[in-house]
Amino acid sequence: MTAPIEIPNEVEIRGDRFVPFIDAQRIQERIREIADAINRDLTGSTPIFICVLNGAFMFFADLVRRITIDCEVDFLKLSSYGEEKISSGSVKLVKDLNCEVEGRHIVLVEDIVDTGYSIDFMKKWIAKKNPATLKIVTLLHKPSSTKITHALDYVGFEIPTKFVVGYGLDYAQKARNLPAIYILDSNHDNEQ
Ligand code: IMP
Ligand code: MG
User: Which one of 24, 101, 128, 137 is most buried, counting C-beta atoms within 10 A?
Assistant: First the structure.
């Protein structure tokens, strides 16, 4: 038997304290529900699932392994937040898709929608490539901080406007490896 993955009680990054918020089991249960819905909704098509790097890598891997319909995968990379906890609002493409999008059913898989600028940029970018359809999946959504609203087809969890890390999401590139999601401790000075 392999040892279970270690789950820390708290995480400290650059003097900020993060505490458990969504545990690994709850994440997996929600992913199962989303995958079931996608399998149902896209039956009969062969979608291309697009992972938005880096943040979505863990969610993407867990989601696509529950996809039972015929599908393909590809990867897109946007410029990051840098070392800050607040969205810069400027989005740049660092790595484009390798696949042919025209006429295909595209499912864009994001870790989190915060201001909505990244989704806005990617929707326009992919739309120019003439897909048959474009659906958006995001594990997390912060509705109160969203400035550009787009329809999100599948949302894992709606969360408050607070910085979160773990399960692919980082703070200054740290904490992506954590198996669960942690939130900035509200009893602590350094709010988002
Ligand atoms: P948006 O363009 O403001 O919607 O931000 C989208 C991107 O910012 C996400 O794909 C994440 O990579 C990053 N991001 C937004 N909020 C958080 C957070 O709370 N923790 C870590 N990364 C975040
Ligand atoms: Mg992201």
Answer: 137
- Quote the tokens at residue 125: 């970018």
Q: Is the CB of 62 under 6 A from ligand 1?
A: no
The predicted-structure confidence for 103-128, as pLDDT tens digits, reads as follows: 999 999 999 999 999 999 999 999 99
Ligand 1 atom closest to 170 (CA): 21
Residue 12 covered by a domain: no
Token pair of 120 as six digits: 């806005």
Whether residue 185 is contained in a domain is answered as no
For the chain, the distance separating the N- and C-terminal CA atoms, rounded to the nearest angstrom, is 41
Domain that holds residue 129: 25-160
| Residue 92, Cβ density class (10 Å: 0-12 exposed, 13-18 middle, ≥19 buried) | exposed
What is the 8-class DSSP label of residue 144? G
Strand-strand pairing, 72-78 and 93-95: antiparallel
For residue 56, the CA-to-ligand 2 centroid distance in Å is 6
Domain count, the chain: 1
> Is 114 part of the annotated catalytic residue set?
yes
Cα(10)–Cα(188) distance, integer angstroms? 13
The contacts of residue 1 (CB under 8 Å, 6+ apart) are none
Residue 130's domain is classified under what CATH number?
3.40.50.2020
Catalytic, out of 114, 120, 153, 170: 114
